[in-house]
Amino acid sequence: MEMFDLLAHRARVTPDRPALEDLDSGERYDYAALNERAARLAAAARQHWGLKDGARLAYLGHSRAEFFAMLFGCAKAGLILVPLNWRLAVPELTVLMEDCQPGALIFGAEFADAAATLAEQHQGLTLVALDGAAAGQRDYAEDLAAVQPDLSGHPDKDPDTPWYLLYTSGTTGKPKGVIQTFRMMLANYLNIGLAVELTGRDVLLNVLPLFHTAGINLYSSAVFLAGGSVLVARAFDPDQALRVLENRATIFFGVPAVYQALLEHPSFSGDRLKGVRSWGCGGAPLSLPVAQRYVDQGIRVRTGMGMTETGPTVFLLDEELVIDKIGSVGRPQLLTEVRIVGRDGQDVPEGEAGELLIRGPNITPGYWNRPEATAEAIRADGWLHSGDVARRDADGCYYIVDRWKDMYISGGENVYPAEVEKVLEQHPALAEVAVVGMADDKWGEVGKAFYGLRDGADDPGEDTLRAFCRERLAGYKVPKAFQRVDALPRNALGKVTKQELRDAV
User: What are the AMP-dependent synthetase/ligase domain coordinates in residue numbering (predicted)?
Assistant: First the structure.
């Protein structure tokens, strides 16, 4: 199967249909205009920025509609886009730059100082300013305006050609650049687009960062393939999000922190959000109390699970099962196979926990310049070892129990911190909880719980929380220590970075 120019074909089919809107700048593109913009970027990258086939083009900036012109423009030019995590400090960005060696860096004005520092460290790097160039820099708008775009579409190419790199958070070591391909994007469209029944009439509100697979593919890239419209927010703002959800959006995907913030907003009302026909959640588990509060508002939030390495969609919960299967990520979608295996590599019986393995056309070819890490994660038989602990119930629904590396062994018994966290989340005074293992002379390892309080709640204290756990958990699962924190450390998608907590203990 050869891969054709997806955007050029969509522009041919529905040229006048709205494709993109930047909610902050007001900039809008129909499909014909977006295709032309991407073609201009492709020409400018070659003519003005000196990039050739396979070269990397980095982007450092907040979310904006223009990002998707860069993404599809790189496809047209045969380049590899590298969206950089703007939350990282310059030394952390330097690690990524050294790994992928981009020939040019497009940056937003908010990161001009960081871009200048990176250019000093990487000789030969072309700086391209989105918001007005300084001396020695290329001006993005001027360069795109000065070229003659080729609107015919790029030549057919191998669907496994690297298209863009997404770096993992690196909470347990050196970040890895996960290769993303055309095949992965198409597989994701079939996995999520069919499940959500995307159409050209759908309007997506995208509030997630575009250096992450969720921001790009849940559901933006799938909406483009369906011919719908994507509204891009510069960042998540509850006021703006609720206005758009009430008046314009038909579909929405968020992470638990986003759903929590919407729920706590004084103007939140399920009755005012009936125009949104589908709600999705991923990135981290949606706590049972939050899921139930949405159900009480008449909103069924479909939880799912995926990874950067899987493009990302693997699982999605059926809407009719949201109440009965709260806590489940659903069933594997159309183009994905899964297994649950024990440490011996054999499939575990139904209901038992083991490592989740994933296989299908949605799996990455590997990690950029990391053959050893690729071979460790993706075995010769094609199965990706996810590092997640999962179980399957009698109805074929899957549950993510924990991360394989987060499990600890106390007195010879496996303890999955996520199970303990779900119990503590039920305490009325606690807003957030994270449990990690720590060394113990007697038991080998024991648990330590970090917790934050709800607004206005009194601290129940260690003895009360321990007693609360003892009523609901086996003794070896009850944390030995408890520590109150102002806030848990989280990454860009709101997922708790447990390595920071492990380092603390």
Answer: 8-368
Three-state DSSP at 26 gives: coil
Q: What is the mean pLDDT of residues 118-137?
A: 95
Cα separation, 496 vs 21, whole angstroms: 31
Gap between the Cα atoms of 125 and 189, Å rounded: 34
Structure tokens at 461: 């204290």
pLDDT tens for each residue of 265-324: 999 999 999 999 999 999 777 878 888 899 999 999 999 999 999 999 999 999 999 888
| pTM above threshold 0.85 | yes
Give the pLDDT band (50/70/90) at residue 173: low
Which H helix or E strand runs over 73?
A: helix 66-77
CA atoms within 13 A on the CB side of 346: 3
> Which domains, and CATH codes, for the chain?
6-157 (3.40.50.12780), 184-337+360-369 (3.40.50.12780), 408-504 (3.30.300.30)
Short-list 32, 36, 42, CA closest to 10: 32
Nearest-angstrom CA–CA distance, 378 and 374: 6
Burial class (CB in 10 A: 0-12, 13-18, 19+), 254: buried
**Beta-carbon count within 10 A of 169 CB:** 18
CB atoms within 10 A of CB 109: 11
**Could you tell me the pLDDT band of residue 453, with boundaries at 50, 70 and 90?**
very high
Alpha-helix runs per DSSP H in 104-170 = 112-121, 140-145
Q: Is the pLDDT of residue 408 over 90?
A: no
Residue 170 pLDDT level (bands cut at 50, 70, 90): very low
- How far, in Å, CA of 248 to CA of 359, rounded? 37
> Nearest-CA neighbor of 387 among 352, 356, 429, 431?
356
- Cβ 416 vs Cβ 353: under 8 Å: yes
Which of 169, 180, 167 lies closest to 311 in space, CA to CA? 180
On whether the CB atoms of residues 348 and 340 are closer than 8 A, the answer is yes
What DSSP line would sit under 286-353, residue for residue?
PPHHHHHHHHHTT--EEEEEE-GGG-SEEEE--GGGTTTTTT--BEE-TT-EEEEE-TTSSBPPTT--
Those residues whose C-beta lies under 8 Å from the C-beta of residue 242, and which sit 6 or more positions away, are: 262, 265, 267, 268, 273
- Per-residue pLDDT at 1: 67
- How far apart CA 484 and CA 401 sit, in angstroms, is 24
Cα 74 off chain centre by: 21
What does the H/E/C string look like for 426-493? CCCCEEEEEEEEEEECCCEEEEEEEEEECCCCCCCCHHHHHHHHHCCCCHHHCCCEEEECCCCCECCC
Helix or strand holding residue 22 (H, E):
strand 18-22
Q: How far is CA 29 from CA 19, 66, 350, in A?
A: 6, 9, 49
Q: Closest Cα to residue 377, out of 390, 393, 363, 389?
A: 363
